[in-house]
Structures are given as C-alpha cells and as structure tokens.
Amino acid sequence: MPTALFPEGLTWELLAVLALVALAAGWVDAVVGGGGLLQLPALLLVPGITPVHALATNKFASIFGTATSSITYYRRTHPDLRTALPMAGFALAGSFGGASVAALLPVAVFKPIIVLALVGVAIFTATRPAMGSETRLRFSDRRRHHGSAALIGAGIGFYDGMLGPGTGTFLVISLVSVLGYNFLEASAKAKIVNFATNLGALLLFVPHGAVLWGLGAVLAAANMAGGYLGSRTAIARGTGFVRVAFLAVVAVLVVRLGFDVWNESVRGWFATR
Fold first, then answer.
1. Which whole-number Å values give the CA distances from 134 to 70, 82, 138, 153, 248, in the listed order?
2. What is the pLDDT of residue 2?
C-alpha cells in the first residue's frame, strides 16, 4: 500500500477488519457516544503507526460519522439548535485548546480520575430510572441554560482534545443531568457538539500532516454507515433504549480505562518493588 496514505505495516486483511471496527464504532457513537473506545485501540494495533497518526486519523474518520448521525438526528427529531450550536462553538474552541496542550500533560494522572467519574455516572444513572425519560429543563432562564451549555461544551471539548475516551458519553450525561433533556434529545445534541470537538482537534492535526488520508477515508466511509444506522436505531427504539445503551457503554469504558490504570500505575508500582 502507498506509505503516504497508509501505514507501512497495514495489510488488506487488517484494513478490512479496521473497516468493520469503524462501522461498529460509528453505530455506538451515534446511539450514545464512546465509539472511539473501539476505533482508536484498533488503530493503535496497526504495525508502524504512531500514536499521533492514530489519534489524528481516528478524529478524521469520526468527524464523518458524527456529521452523518447529526444530520440524521436533525432531520428526524429536530433538536433545539439554539442550545446545540453555541455549545458546539465553545466545544470547538475547547477541543483546539486541549489538543494544543495534550503533549504537555501526564495522561496517566487523569485516567484514574476519569474511571472514578464514570463509576459515579453509572451509579447516578442506574439509581435514577426516571432521569432522562422525558425532557424537564432545569433552567427557566435562557441565559442560565445557554451559559451552562457553553461551560459544558468548553470543558468537555477541552477534555476531548486533550485525552478523549468517553467524550460522547460525558456529553450525554451532562445534557441529561445538568440541563434536563431526555436521553434521545441529549444524544442528538451530543452528536452536533461531538462533531465540533473532532473539528477543533483536526484544526491542529491537519496542518501538522498527522492524518493518514487513505486509511482515514476508508474508516470515514465505514463510520458514516455506522453513524447512519446507529442514529436510525436510537430514533426508532426511543429514549429507554438509549439509556440502556448508555449504561452499557459506561460499563465498558470503566473496564477498559480501569485496565489501562492497572497496567500503567498499579502494576508498574508493584514492578518497582
């Protein structure tokens, strides 16, 4: 394969597997977020690929999936853009800032905090079965509503640019618990905001030549198909289905990131003793 477009160690068989993973990632991302949990680790298994190329190519593919699911959600559920678009603007700025400082921060320090936060999110959601079943906006004052949305967008956008795992999941639970949307509406808005966070990171990655365009194009096509199917599934099955899928993705995120923390911190501590 041409090395300017694909990593040197990539075979046609591995490319086919990556395309299937990207399809599944697009579906998961469209329903409730967390598709990067599948796609990024798969990319890092490619021989010869660097972490920066994997991150940038993952963002490039994901932005097509989030664009597809955003359009599908908008055409069928008509989410309130007066909240989603300003939130997306702040998220884009936050993501660019996060990507700018990513190399300066010790990622291993943040992962245990993220695991604890996700465990808290899972318990909070599981013990409140009525939460997110219908939209009950927390703020009657539009300025407080939009101000809270902007802060959520900027904060989670920064996190996505800096680190990334579970961005869509954090967006959904914030829109449900802080602003008061139901799970389906929250997922629809989260896709628009997630598109902006991907774009913000790409504004930094593309000028530095970090995207593998050939591999990215293949994964983008698969991600688009998954995003379309996932958003159609969520719309057809409703907010109850999205809530169950949300809890499942949070559980997988906890296990995956917990394993990383064990390998990087706990196991390393025992190895030095």
1. 20, 19, 12, 22, 20
2. 45
